[in-house]
Amino acid sequence: MLGRGMTTRESTEEVFESVLRLFDATGIVLAEGWNAPVWHLSIGVPEDWIRDHTRLSEQDPSRKFLLESPTGTWWWAEKHSSKVEKRLEIWRCFRRAGLRDAMVTRLANPFRDNIVFAVYRSGRPFSAREAAAFDLLYPHLSGAAASRRASLLIDGNTLGRSACVEVAFPSCAVVIDAHARRLIGRAVDVRTGEAWRRVERAIAEAARRSMLAGIGGRTQFLWPGLAIDFSEIPARAQERIRFVGLLLEEGDSHPAVEAVPGLVSTLLSPRQLAAARAFGAGVTLPEVARRLGVGVETARSHVRAAYEKLGVRTRAELVHVLRGLDDER
User: Fold this and answer.
1) How many CA atoms, within 13 angstroms, populate the side-chain half-sphere of residue 237?
2) Which of 23, 231, 243, 288 has a CA between 20 and 30 Å from the CA of residue 89?
3) 324 and 264 in contact (C-beta within 8 Å)?
4) What is the domain partition of the chain in residue ranges?
5) Against a cut of 0.90, is the pTM above it?
6) More confident position, 145 or 131
7) Per-residue pLDDT averaged across 200-223, rounded?
8) CATH architecture of the domain covering 268-329
C-alpha cells in the first residue's frame, strides 16, 4: 500500500485503518486541535468519549505535553499520566467509555495547524514494544495526513489560497502559482527567464528527493528562510506521480540548507559559483581573477552577483551556504 503511494482520501484512510488492525486497537481519531476540535476522521471511538472530550478538552493532559514537544513525539496515557491527572473528570470519562490506554501525537503538516492523531485501546495497555513501533510508523502517518489534507483542499477548491507549486513525474514539469512566485521573488533574485528556469529545476529536485524519501509530507528547505512541504495528489494522464508543494516562510534565519541546496547550485552560473567558492575560502580577488582567467573587475562582479543571488551579506554567511552544498555532494 505504501509502495503505490497515497493519492486519495480513501488510500490515506487505509493507512490509518491499518494501524487500527495492526495494534488490535479499539478506535482511532484524526482531529484538528484540542479546543472544540474538528473530527476529520473517527473510527471505532465511542461517541460518549468524543462528546466528553470536546466538553473537557482543557483538561486533556496530552495537550500541554505535545505542544511543548517536537512533532512526532507520542504521549502515552498509561506512562505519562500523573496520579493527579488520573483524578480529573476527563480521565473518569475516559474509563467510563471503556477505554484503557491511548497513544496520541501531533502530526507535522504543511498547513501549520495542530493535527492530532490518537489510537485508543480497551482491555490492556500498550506495551513498550508497541510504543516503539509507533515511532517507526510516524512518518507514514504524517505523510498520510498531509496528503489527505491536500486532497480535501483540492476538492474544496481552496488550495489556491496558499503559495503552492505542482510537480509531475517523469516529465519533471513544474507549475508555480502567482502566490508562490511572489514569495520566491522576495527571497531570491529571479528577474530573468533563465533564473525562473533554475528555480523550477530546484523545485523539481526537491520534489524528487521527497519522492525518494518514501512518503509525502516531507518538509525541505528550498532556500534560507523558505521551506517547501510536499504531499502526493492524484496523477493525471501520462504521469506516474504528481506532488503539490506548499511554500512556507521560516523567518530570516539561515536554516540547514544542506537538506535541499538546489537553488544554491542552480541560481549561480558556473563562473559565479567558482568565484564564490574561492572568495569564501579566503582567496583574494586578484587571485580569484587569475584562477578564472578573467580581469579583477569581472571576478568582483561574479562575487557580487553570488552575494545578491544567495541573499548573503558577509563572507561567513557565504561560507555557510556553500558548505551546505559541499556537504550534500
Assistant:
1) 0
2) 23
3) yes
4) 9-155, 160-251, 268-329
5) no
6) 131
7) 72
8) Orthogonal Bundle (1.10)
